[in-house]
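Input structure tokens:
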């Protein structure tokens, strides 16, 4: 997340949204902390900024954020399942960074359902590609 995330209402926003952020259970690499999820206001702002918020209602944001957070927690558990194959060399992997978000901040394309997670496997960086909607015909392409 940016150092100073936008928690202000968007122009034209009809009602105030919560700015409360929830800590995840996902250990943040290089720290003793865990990642913190965006607030409903931050999530709403991001959707609008990406041009994906035209049909999103403020009333739905609590549920959207809850679903987003749940998917990340489940995904982390799946990553840990794979990491168990390497438990002899690393018992406690951590998530260094979600690369898709970083690329977006640098002006790159923002994938909707693909996330590149870099896991710190006790000093070794391992990339996981999380693709919620995989299409065989687009495999290996930028799409």
């Amino acid at each position: 997340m940016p150092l100073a995330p936008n928690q202000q209402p968007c122009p034209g926003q009809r009602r105030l949204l919560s700015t409360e952020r929830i800590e995840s259970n996902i250990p943040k690499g290089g720290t003793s902390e865990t990642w913190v999820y965006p607030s409903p206001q931050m999530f709403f702002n991001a959707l609008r900024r990406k041009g994906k918020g035209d049909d999103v209602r403020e009333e739905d944001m609590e549920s959207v954020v809850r679903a987003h957070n749940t998917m990340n927690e489940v995904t982390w558990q799946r990553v840990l399942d794979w990491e168990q194959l390497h438990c002899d060399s690393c018992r406690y992997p951590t998530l260094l960074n979600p690369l898709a978000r970083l690329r977006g901040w640098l002006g790159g394309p923002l994938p909707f359902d693909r996330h590149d997670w870099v896991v710190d496997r006790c000093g070794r960086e391992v990339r996981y590609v999380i693709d919620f909607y995989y299409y065989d015909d687009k495999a290996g392409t930028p799409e």
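The mean pLDDT is 84. The two ends are 24 Å apart (CA to CA).
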